[in-house]
Amino acid sequence: MELLEQRILRDGVVVNADVLKVGSFLNHQIDAVLLDALGAEFYRLFSSCPINKVITVEASGIAIAYVTALRFKVPMVFAKKSMTRVLPEDVYTTRVESFTHGRIYDVVMSKQFLGPDDHVLIVDDFLANGCALEGLLDLTRQAGATVEGIGIAIEKGFQKGGASIRAQGYRVESLAIVESMDPETGKITFRSAC
Ligand code: 5GP
After folding, report:
1. Model pTM?
2. Which atom belonging to ligand 1 lies closest to the Cα atom of 130?
3. Which of 16, 21, 100 to mutate to test the pocket of ligand 1 (most atoms within 8 A of CB)?
């Protein structure tokens, strides 16, 4: 998606060989107009699928999942990073290793909000090694829900998550795929759309 790629080139900061900082428009300060366009693009890509729920994991997936859910006019549910072990019988739980913090979180989602009748679109801001997506896929498996597709704003194509999730048969649509980024020069290149 040209609009997102141009914004990454303009405002993205290559922190190191693995991490791209987009805090000025995507996950600290949020450019609401840009996010609205991302939601519209996910709707265009997945509108033929019978999606009745959009799911993500807190915190940085929430805004983009919300604008997407608004387009589909369906609820959005986010998995919560569990601080307390409240009512374990009422929640699905899984473990996710945080890419940015390097620690493992328990994440939970209420059984009230995800079940076998649900057809979900999973949305997140980044795809790196795929741990956040594996956690969300695990929650949908526990719920017996159907995954209609996965929408990612920025995939780092040089990390293993995209290949591994696609190899499992899921449809993954990433709006920008970073092919390489150089912390020395700050140069970012994208995988060209085929
Ligand atoms: P994964 O679980 O695929 O390894 O990483 C995805 C999660 O880690 C995303 O939810 C995102 O919040 C965070 N993340 C991964 N890579 C980056 C990055 O380069 N920049 C930022 N800001 N967050 C990232």
Report:
1. 0.96
2. 3
3. 100
Q: What pLDDT, in 10s, does the model give residues 138-179? A: 999 999 999 999 999 999 999 999 999 999 999 999 999 999
| pLDDT tens digits for range 58-72 | 999 999 999 999 999
Which residues lie closer than 8 Å to 185 by C-beta, 6 or more apart? none
Place of tokens 């040209």: 2
Express each pLDDT in 22-46 by its tens digit. Answer: 999 999 999 999 999 999 999 999 9
Q: What residues contact residue 73 under an 8 Å CB cut-off, 6+ apart? A: none
- Is the Cβ atom of 56 under 6 angstroms away from ligand 1? no
Cα 148 to Cα 94: distance, rounded to the nearest angstrom: 20
User: Distance (Å, rounded) from C-alpha 32 to C-alpha 65?
Assistant: 13
Closest CA to 50 of 168, 148, 136: 148
Tally the C-alpha atoms within 13 A of residue 69's C-alpha that lie toward its C-beta.
21
